[in-house]
Design a protein that fits this description.
By secondary structure, this protein is an all-alpha fold. It is built from 3 helices and no strands. The chain has a domain of 47 residues. The longest helix is centred in the N-terminal third of the chain and has 20 residues.
Length: 78
């Protein structure tokens, strides 16, 4: 859990943290409960690195090609 919080901070995660801070500031200055909800939403996403894929279920596969790329099979179309 501690590793998930402190590692893997990419640009998208920083952007979510900035959105959380902006909404938190807006909620505190304008007394908007919806801004607090948005701040909590983006804050949780930034802290735990979750997004549209949930817990990274749709993460891309590891790079690597299967098969030999030098073997090319051509089929003649008539």
């Amino acid at each position: 859990m501690k590793e998930r919080l402190f590692t893997g901070w990419n640009a998208q995660r920083w952007l979510r943290a900035v959105f959380a801070a902006v909404f938190l500031f807006a909620g505190a200055t304008r007394h908007e409960p919806v801004a607090f909800v948005a701040a909590a939403f983006f804050g949780v996403q930034a802290l735990f690195n979750i997004g549209c894929c949930g817990s990274a279920v749709c993460a891309p596969r590891a790079s690597g090609r299967k098969g030999d790329p030098s073997e090319v099979v051509y089929e003649e179309i008539t």
